[in-house]
């Protein structure tokens, strides 16, 4: 009987060691596993932890100087634009790094001419860049969705998520997830103006 127990003990110990190694090295919940954001909110939270709960206000406080902010968090790209949109539509271009993002308003998006402002901010995080937009006038709602188009360096098939900031509850809300197309292009739909974050 003791021989049988000893014969079973060695394989049991071996299986136990393999199981522990698998759990420690292969399970994302392991304390030894690489840490990363559970979702895009973690990356946006990182930006806020570095630049404050309103990074655009921080940008304004240093005179819209991305180099000054870059001393805090790394290489930051910044651009802004203003355009009058009427019932014929319109386009805003934002240069962030070497890529141009556009916000295109289709015919009939607004019923009366409106001066639209946009500020774009691209911020590095440990999990990749976060792109933030502040569109105004805040709260403006469209009859037809505007299209936010980004040029990225991501591979085709990867996904990005668009969040908007709900100031009524003070939280970022997931609006849409989109798949990167050929040449790194990705598109989102914007139905109203607020602050947006893409991760």
Structural overview:
This protein has 2 domains: 1-35; 40-198, Chondroitinase Ac, Chain A, domain 3 (Sandwich). 26% of the residues lie in helices and 40% in strands. It is built from 4 helices and 10 strands, in the order ααααββββββββββ. The strands form 2 sheets. It has a 6-stranded antiparallel sheet with strand order 1-4-5-10-7-8. β7 and β8 form a beta hairpin. It is globular and about 40 Å long. The N and C termini lie far apart (61 Å).
Concise description?
With 199 residues, the chain is α+β, with helices and mostly antiparallel strands. The chain has helices spanning 2-26, 40-51, 55-61, 66-73; strands at residues 77-85, 90-96, 99-105, 114-123, 130-136, 141-151, 159-166, 171-179, 185-192, 195-198.
Strand and helix map with partners:
Layout: H1 2-26, H2 40-51, H3 55-61, H4 66-73, E1 77-85, E2 90-96, E3 99-105, E4 114-123, E5 130-136, E6 141-151, E7 159-166, E8 171-179, E9 185-192, E10 195-198
Antiparallel strand pairs: 1-4, 2-3, 3-6, 4-5, 5-10, 6-9, 7-8, 7-10
Kindly report how far apart the N and C termini lie. Answer: 61 Å
The multimeric state of the shown protein is: single chain
What is the overall silhouette?
A: globular
Number of domains: 2
* Topology as a string of helices (H) and strands (E): HHHHEEEEEEEEEE
Describe the sheet with the most strands: 6 strands, antiparallel
Q: Trace the largest sheet across and list its strands.
A: 1-4-5-10-7-8
- Strand content range: 35-45%
Report the uncertain regions: 1-37
| CATH-defined architecture of the largest domain | Sandwich
Structural class: alpha+beta
Instruction: Identify the CATH class of the largest domain.
Output: Mainly Beta
Helix content: 25-40%
Rg, Cα atoms, Å: 23 Å
| Helix count, DSSP H or I runs of 4 or more residues | 4
Mean pLDDT over the residues:
80
Extended strand count? 10
CATH topology of the largest domain: Chondroitinase Ac, Chain A, domain 3
């Amino acid at each position: 009987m003791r021989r049988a127990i000893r014969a079973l003990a060695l394989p049991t110990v071996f299986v136990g060691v393999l199981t522990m190694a698998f759990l420690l090295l292969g399970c994302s919940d392991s304390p030894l596993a690489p840490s990363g954001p559970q979702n895009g909110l973690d990356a946006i939270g990182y930006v806020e932890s570095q630049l404050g709960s309103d990074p655009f206000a921080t940008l304004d406080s240093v005179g819209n100087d991305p180099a000054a902010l870059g001393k805090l968090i790394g290489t930051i790209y910044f651009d802004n634009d203003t355009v009058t949109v009427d019932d014929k539509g319109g386009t805003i271009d934002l240069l962030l790094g070497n890529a141009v993002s556009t916000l295109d308003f289709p015919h009939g998006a607004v019923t009366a001419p409106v001066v639209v402002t946009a500020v774009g901010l691209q911020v590095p995080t440990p999990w990749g860049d976060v792109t933030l937009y502040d569109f105004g006038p805040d709260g403006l709602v469209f009859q037809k969705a505007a299209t936010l188009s980004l040029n990225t360096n991501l591979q085709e098939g990867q996904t990005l998520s668009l969040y908007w900031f709900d100031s009524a509850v003070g939280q970022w809300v997931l609006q849409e997830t989109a798949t990167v197309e050929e040449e790194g292009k990705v598109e989102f739909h914007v139905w109203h103006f607020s602050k947006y974050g893409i991760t």
